[in-house]
Amino acid sequence: MREQNLDIYGHEPIPWERALRQLETHVPQGRGRTCWLATVDADGAPHVAAVGAVWLDDRFYFVSGPRLRKSRNVAANPRCVISVSLDDVDVVVEGTARRVTDDSVLERVAGVYVSLGWPAQVSDGALTAPYSAPSAGRPPWHVYEVTPTAAVGVATAEPHGATRWWFSE
């Protein structure tokens, strides 16, 4: 991993592990953190939506109904951004999204959601449950995996700093 110190006040770079530890700590619904997914419409207009994203195996996963704008956007242009405010660092992760249909991956993602209080189940290459956030649309919900290419972190508590990380060249 390559990093660049963006801090203008002399602070050391933020270690990726600081953000990673917090990303790997899943927070139950109601006390959780909001993730924001940014995609691009076909005409180039930006689209941002709150998503219940989870971090698993060094990737973000989120769900979306197949007819929703965010699903259509990532199908046409998989480049996207997920932003999240963690306990002491705000993180913006750039990456590419792809739909996940592998049952073993879907089961692992569903397991994380279940542990957080959402009773998700795998069904026909997607997730179902008795309910979901209104922004997810109607079931079934496709699962999307966002593979990070780069991220920026800005510390909101000591030790302060700002850093850009690249996950691949």
Layout of secondary structure:
Layout: E1 2-5, H1 16-24, E2 35-40, E3 46-51, E4 54-56, E5 59-64, H2 69-76, E6 79-85, E7 89-100, H3 103-115, E8 121-123, E9 126-128, E10 142-155, E11 162-166
Walk me through what this model shows.
β2 and β3 form a beta hairpin. The protein has helices at about 15-25, 70-75, 105-115, and strands spanning about 1-5, 35-40, 45-50, 55, 60-65, 80-85, 90-100, 120-125, 125-130, 140-155, 160-165. The chain is an alpha+beta fold. Strands 1, 2, 3, 4, 5, 6, 7, 10 and 11 form a nine-stranded antiparallel β-sheet that branches. A two-stranded antiparallel ribbon has the order 8-9. It has three helices and eleven strands, in the order βαββββαββαββββ. About 20% of the residues lie in helices and about 40% in strands. The longest helix is centred in the middle third of the chain and has 13 residues, at about 105-115.
